[in-house]
Amino acid sequence: MMKNNLQKNGQRWGARQVTATALILLLILFLLPLLFFGTTGTETPEEAAPTGELPIDRTVVTPQPSADSQTQIRVALSDGSVLTLGLDQYLWRVVAAEMPASFEPEALKAQATAARTYTLSKLGRTVENHPDADVCTDITCCQAYIDPDQAAANWGDAAAEYAAKITAAVADTDGMAILYGGQPIQAVFFSSAAGRTVDAVEVWGNSVPYLTGVDSPEGEEVPNYHSTASFTLDEFKTKLLGQYPDADLSGDPAGWFQNLVPNSAGGVETVDVGGVTFSGGALRTLFGLRSTSFTVTASADGVTFSVTGYGHGVGMSQYGANALAKEGKTYEEILKWYYTGVEVAPYTPAS
Fold first, then answer.
1. Confidence at 128, pLDDT banded by 50, 70, 90
2. Which among 37, 71, 95, 187 is least buried, having the fewest CB atoms inside 10 angstroms?
3. What are the C-alpha distances in Å from 185 to residues 14, 84, 347?
4. Whether the predicted pLDDT of 21 surpasses 60
5. What mean pLDDT do residues 287-303 have?
6. Measured between alpha carbons, how far is 243 from 273 in angstroms, rounded to an integer?
7. Residue 61: band (very low, low, confident or very high) from pLDDT cuts 50, 70, 90
């Protein structure tokens, strides 16, 4: 009996050992992965501690300053003060004043490049009108100019859109200039032509190889493309004889104007008035005409000039540039259209 009991107790002990061993093995099998690999993949791991280094794809790149911003321009303002601006800031003010911001982007780029080139050509030259500055804001001497706040006020609800267009025109042409023989040209421009621009020699008496007459495609879309200037006989006589007393304005007014010689664009090169020969430009200035592309009628009722276009007619026509941009031409193509034999390339002014 005792022997049987011992045998039974031994069996129970052995069974307990087997069970304990099995439990230990099961625990090891489940715990080992946790000890070696941490939590399961369904849990979010803690973020890595900062290393003080940026990942390659997040490296901060400091933008290089624009070429224009590295050139400083001294601007003589209308109040007599001189303001120093980066060329990019100055050009923004010029383009905003010189060309409608509603124009095509490529036309605005052409204007920005022409204005930049004109400015670069002025650097290092002493001008009597502004001896302490590179340029001034008098359009009879330099380029038009407008303060950004005034431009925004003029643009009204379109201010943000137009300001962005001007900024893009300057930035997208950064450092680009119109060159002839490797140097910036006298990049003159004007508002609109009567079908063709004029050779510089016809306006200023100097032949300039890159300022020759070319066709210009603007037309009836130009505001005030056709204009008139009318004067009574007494008004006309007072203005003309006040500066040209040798003119004979007696007799029938229809006979005052003789021997009209057209220029290359179909406007007035010269015309005799009362026996005195006048250039078309002189009459334009004297009577405030919008261009030298005019015809004239005179009778007992007075003198009337019928005018087409606006401006001196030399170089780039702004409305013509916009018409070319609408046809799909780039700003470089527009500039090469109006300035003969030039290249459009980066230019760094001498320090």
1. confident
2. 37
3. 109, 23, 12
4. no
5. 97
6. 13
7. low
- Cα separation of 118 and 347, whole Å? 12
How far lies 210's CA from each of 75, 150, 201, 291, 294, in Å? Answer: 27, 35, 11, 21, 25
CA separation for the pair 232, 249 (Å, rounded): 13
Q: Is the pLDDT of residue 282 over 80?
A: yes
Looking at per-residue pLDDT, the higher value among 213 and 57 belongs to 213
46 vs 167, which has greater pLDDT? 167
Query: What whole-number percentage of the chain has pLDDT above 70?
Result: 82
Which among 349, 330, 350 is positioned nearest to 169, based on CA atoms? Answer: 330
Structure confidence at residue 44 as a pLDDT band (50, 70, 90): very low
Amino acid letter, residue 258: Q
Q: Quote the pLDDT of residue 62.
A: 54
Residue 35 token pair = 């000890």
**Residue 24 to residue 36: CA distance in whole angstroms:** 18
Place of tokens 């794809």: 57
CA 5, 6, 11, 12 torsion-angle sign: positive
pTM tops 0.90:
no
Give the CB-side neighbour count of residue 227, counting CA atoms within 13 A. 18
Tokens 């004043």 correspond to: 97
AA identity, residue 144: A
